[in-house]
């Protein structure tokens, strides 16, 4: 049988973890998490890490295996995930991958665009500019350096702006000139499963999840992380807003409302990313397992 990767994707709070566990149990296999914020040990509640029962039901990989102080890029994840898949496919014909981080999913499925190594001082200077002058300076510099990429980048995401700028500055070439080069084919087949639901339902589930996180102690989880708030891992919805509350700039109620709002925006960006992929098999978020398996068999 051709080795098969089942990739479960969709907006946050739609039920990806439950579907991935159901599939892994059916196929007697293991799960790779491609959620880039669930990698970190210090960020459990705010990233909706699977609970202990879920983790015991099926073996998960790339869950809380890093510290927030570690440098761990999407390229590192691509390398580690492919090495693990090579091992898992010796024991299983099917492996399940789940996560809402579109770039990390694509890194495993398609491969990343390759970039030369850049002097880390360039990124450090860009981070300083961002801290001192805000996101506007990054947007202006990228528009001047690479107008082609500037047209399609998420201009509200400082990390994407900084990444593109450091390539422009470090190579003297536009970031876009390194994109869409031929990539090495993967030695396995992938079926992408995209979970969908009515937008209002997704928003309701997001609101419920945020309330649950607060009840479970998210504020207490964030408190000891405040001194590290500038770390890349902590530039995450749920943490950024509570830092402002702990600094006395916002009330708790307002911070919670901002978490909900920003999570809804994040879910919208996730769907925009997924909509770019024409090969996704879209299924209802509450599809019965038997019906889902029938669709997968048809794809195979």
Automatic annotation (TrEMBL):
The record's SUPFAM superfamilies line, in alphabetical order, gives: P-loop containing nucleoside triphosphate hydrolases
User: Cross-referenced Pfam families, in alphabetical order?
Assistant: IPPT
Map out region (Interaction with substrate tRNA) in residue numbers: 35-38
Which InterPro entries would you find in this protein's record? Dimethylallyltransferase, IPT, P-loop_NTPase
User: What top-level branch of life does the organism fall under?
Assistant: Bacteria
Q: What is its EC number?
A: 2.5.1.75
Cofactors needed by this protein, per the record, are: Mg(2+)
Q: Keywords, A to Z? A: ATP-binding, Magnesium, Nucleotide-binding, Transferase, tRNA processing
The reaction(s) catalysed by this protein are: adenosine(37) in tRNA + dimethylallyl diphosphate = N(6)-dimethylallyladenosine(37) in tRNA + diphosphate
Q: Which of the seven top EC classes does this enzyme belong to? A: transferase
Instruction: Describe its partners and assembly state.
Output: Monomer.
Homology family: Belongs to the IPP transferase family.
What does the UniProt function comment say about this protein? Catalyzes the transfer of a dimethylallyl group onto the adenine at position 37 in tRNAs that read codons beginning with uridine, leading to the formation of N6-(dimethylallyl)adenosine (i(6)A).
Q: Can you say what this protein is called?
A: tRNA dimethylallyltransferase
- Please name the source species: Pricia mediterranea
Q: Which gene encodes it?
A: miaA
